Amino acid sequence: MTAASRSTDTTPWYHTVTAMIVAGCLVAIVNFGVRSSFGFFTVPVSEAHGWPREIFSFAIALQNIVWGIATPIAGMLADRYGSARVLMAGAIVYAIGVLLMATAGTPLMFNLAGGVLVGVGIAFSSFSIVMAALGRIVPPDRRSWAFGIATASGSLGQFIFAPLGALLVTAYGWQQALAVLAGLTLLIVVFAAPLLKQNVTPSRPSAAEADLTMRQAIGLAFGHRSYILLVSGFFVCGFQLAFITVHMPPYLAEHGISREFAGWAMALIGLFNVVGSYASGIIGGRGEKHVPLALIYLVRAAITAIFVLLPVTEASTLFFTCSMGLLWLSTVPLTMGLVTVMFGTRYMATLYGFVFVSHQLGSFLGVWLAGRLYDQFGSYDIVWWLSVGLGVFAFLINLPIREQRQPRFAAA
Asked: What is the pLDDT of residues 248-294, one digit of tens each?
């Protein structure tokens, strides 16, 4: 090899596969971390404005539904124009929305800021866009592992930002805390830069995939029974996680648990999910994905039932957050893996985006309904037991999924 050819083949360190994986993980940490702290603003924002708790709950519920609706749009743009550009644009919108949450003086403005803008920003800078990029740069036999790494990184963000959010609210007040979080969100722009190397042209089918248009791919996916089952089951994941993220801190507070302890308890969900998500990625790469996915929902239901039946103490809180943390986002690598098994990687971001819409419909219902029922009955008990029942439903609906390529997506 000549000196000229060696120079031509040299890849800058920030464009190596390792660097791009690290960059994607850093994006996931910030994206997931900032939004995981919003539960600590429920009480101070409501009290400062004299609002019932339902108003804050509705804004976060709206955020979740907008996030879900915007995710397939973000996926289409990422599949067509590149993940990095979408991530950077999303970070800017995300930061503006968080900053405006601190200055909004009416429910309408708070809904537009915290609901619409933050929801769009989260969707466009989410780890689903990161995983779509990683799915194209990582070999198929290590793809589930990469999905697990990216998901675990998001959980690490919760471990970092949950206690940070609680600390900022206590030390500086909720408005200044939101301003700091808005500034931290812009780090995504820097972290996404190495991914500019990837997917800067329209995605193309691999050797094992048929050459379909995006419209054909979407239509075929929604005609596939296993895809519909996957979409339906993911609704439950959104309901459970969003309810806990937003309403667990005030639930603990009314049972005498301090804000600082609640912050660390919520952080432990993220820490334990680093282990759970990584393990889920490994399990998904070694065998069937739908069976462990179904079992995750069943075990979540059992853990929730035990927590509700026990007195709320620091010990029972740690049991719940650590146990639930192991299962928190462990559904994501398996769900994303099932999408790639059935439909390949060309339109992965788009098709996972539609699965995620279902997740966010569940998130909307979990957050809003909990706030509404709390204002009406002064208790979260109904929602806790609804979460248990939905977990059993998700277990049953994931079992019939068939792990095989949809025939039209396979190359001739």
From this structure: 988 999 999 988 898 888 888 878 988 888 888 888 877 789 999 99
Which amino acid, residue 401?
Answer: I
> Which residue from 375, 356, 267 is spatially nearest to 64, judged by alpha carbons?
356
- Counting residues of the chain whose pLDDT is more than 70, the rounded percentage is 90
Tens of pLDDT, residues 101-157:
999 989 999 999 999 999 999 999 987 787 777 766 777 767 667 777 777 787 788
User: Cα torsion for 13, 18, 24, 28, to the nearest 10°?
Assistant: -130
- From the number of C-beta atoms within 10 Å of its C-beta (0-12, 13-18, 19+), residue 347 rates as buried
pLDDT of 319 reads: 95
The residue assigned the tokens 């801190």 is 249
CA atoms of 347 and 381, how far apart (whole Å):
41
The tokens describing 368, both together, are: 């809003």
> Which residues make Cβ contacts (< 8 Å) with residue 76, sequence separation at least 6?
214, 349, 350, 353
Whose structure tokens read 């309810």? Answer: 243
Exposed/middle/buried for residue 296 (C-beta within 10 Å: 0-12, 13-18, 19+): buried
Residue found by looking up tokens 């509404």 in the block: 372
Contacts of 379 (CB under 8 A, 6+ apart): 373
pLDDT in tens, 310-350: 999 999 999 999 999 999 888 988 998 899 888 887 787 78
Rounded to two decimals, the pTM is: 0.75
pLDDT for the residue 210: 64
Report, in angstroms and rounded to the nearest whole number, the Rg of the chain calculated over CA atoms: 21
What count of residues does the chain have?
412
* Cβ burial, residue 412 (10 Å; 0-12/13-18/19+): exposed
Q: Are 261 and 370 in contact (CB under 8 A)?
A: no
3-state secondary structure 30-97: HHHHHHHCHHHHHHHHHHHHCCCHHHHHHHHHHHHHHHHHHHHHHHHHHHHHCHHHHHHHHHHHHHHH
Reading the block at residue 108, the tokens are 């309408």
Between CA 121 and CA 198 the distance in angstroms is 21
Nearest in space to 132 (alpha carbons), one of 142, 119, 122, 146? 146
- The pLDDT assigned to 2 comes to 47
